[in-house]
Amino acid sequence: MSVVTREDLLEWDRNDPLGPMRAQFRIPAGTIYLDGNSLGPMPRTTPERVAKAVEEEWGEDLIRSWNKHGWIELPQRCGAKIADLIGAAAHEVVVADSTSVNLFKLLAAALRLRPDRRVILSDTGNFPTDLYVAQGLIELLDKGHELRLVEPEKALEAIDDSVALVMLTQTDYRSGRRHNMAEITSKAHGVGALVLWDLAHSAGAFPVDLRGAKADFAVGCGYKYLNGGPGAPAFLFVAEQHQNQVRPPLSGWMGHEAPFQFDRDYRPAAGISRNLCGTPAILSMTALDAGLDILQKAGMTAIREKSVRMTELFIELMETHCADFGFELFSPRDPEIRGSQVSFRHQQGYPIMAALIEQDVIGDFRAPDILRFGFTPLYLRYGDIWDAVQILRDIMTEGSWDQPKFHKRQAVT
């Protein structure tokens, strides 16, 4: 049985070095937000930053803002801030497009670097869009490539010299299980394969060390732990040694070595910038920039320490106070291989989550039966975790989840 009390957790909150960071986010009163792994909340500085970009930069300075306010360098500036969070050099990361588009670009570029191999290796737990993009590229290339899927636990042993590229999401979007980036990358390099990591549930959630792992490529989104807002631009990483070998499949003008010379023939820019394509989305990138500033102030080491403590607490409280209601831990119990989320399975997972959300405890549901809870230490309090579990216990005790309105599936779950 747990010996921790709500009073203990309120004391933890009073002594929490990250506690003051909560004031930098707009969290509705009474809401316990456990879905930052799907959409981060809005930083309080974002409306002012975006308003300035709209009213002053666009409204007053018009097209001059590309130079006067540095719009043209914003993809690289945001990329440098993200690089600090994922163990990369500033010149190895750029913000552009969506995660799916960036994945397509780097998949195609990587396969060009291994023209004699035909296998893309991934796992059955990968996020579906990653698999869809790979399938679409294989069809487009029509050169006999194969998307080979294995169980996540067997990814390491499946890497052999037939593989051109290993494409994995570091943190499983359903369970939060983490692949060992360094081990898998080393195994791939040992047989001559390249590796592309999806960091959608890693960047901003815990320290990532792309350079230390000698990773080749990576992509990630801006609207989860980076708090860039719905549909925020994504980012991509290309290791320095590959940058001038990569031939982007989407050869847009912003990736040209001299875009304002308006040459008829494409010549890729040197370095990471060749992976740009169209005109940057300045307003949404400005919102992302505001979110990144908060993460840089907090530091990933402190974020990870609190994340582990919070996820451990949540598991303990769930297994103490909700033990009789059929919940099964789906996330790894070992925090060393778990991201910043905890998932439980329940055969009535969808209506239970819907009932929780009506009580302003916001997590999300993943088919077929997974209740998913994200833990973002910048704004979440230990007391919130206690309250969330008690609300869930009451919902289960009273059976209030079993109402028709909670069983009706929404378009977004």
Automatic annotation (TrEMBL):
Superkingdom classification of source: Bacteria
Please give the biological process terms from Gene Ontology that the record holds.
anthranilate metabolic process; L-kynurenine catabolic process; L-tryptophan catabolic process to kynurenine; NAD+ biosynthetic process; quinolinate biosynthetic process
Enzyme Commission numbers on file: 3.7.1.3
What would be one Pfam family of this protein? KYNU_C
4Fe-4S: is it a keyword of this entry?
no
Any one of the GO CC terms: cytoplasm
Q: What biological function has been recorded for the protein in this entry?
A: Catalyzes the cleavage of L-kynurenine (L-Kyn) and L-3-hydroxykynurenine (L-3OHKyn) into anthranilic acid (AA) and 3-hydroxyanthranilic acid (3-OHAA), respectively.
Query: What are the entry keywords?
Result: Hydrolase, Pyridine nucleotide biosynthesis, Pyridoxal phosphate
Reactions that this protein is recorded to catalyse: L-kynurenine + H2O = anthranilate + L-alanine + H(+); 3-hydroxy-L-kynurenine + H2O = 3-hydroxyanthranilate + L-alanine + H(+)
Alphabetical list of SUPFAM superfamilies matching this protein: PLP-dependent transferases
**Which residues does pyridoxal 5'-phosphate bind?**
T99, S100, F127, P128, T129, D130, T169, D198, H201, Y223, W253, T279
Q: In which pathway does it act?
A: Cofactor biosynthesis; NAD(+) biosynthesis; quinolinate from L-kynurenine: step 2/3; Amino-acid degradation; L-kynurenine degradation; L-alanine and anthranilate from L-kynurenine: step 1/1
Tell me which family the UniProt entry assigns to this protein.
Belongs to the kynureninase family.
**According to the UniProt entry, which residues carry N6-(pyridoxal phosphate)lysine?**
K224
Q: Which prosthetic group or cofactor does it need?
A: pyridoxal 5'-phosphate
Q: How does it assemble?
A: Homodimer.
Fetch the InterPro entries from UniProt. Answer: Kynureninase, PyrdxlP-dep_Trfase, PyrdxlP-dep_Trfase_major, PyrdxlP-dep_Trfase_small
| UniProt-recorded name of the protein | Kynureninase
Q: MF terms per GO, please?
A: kynureninase activity; pyridoxal phosphate binding
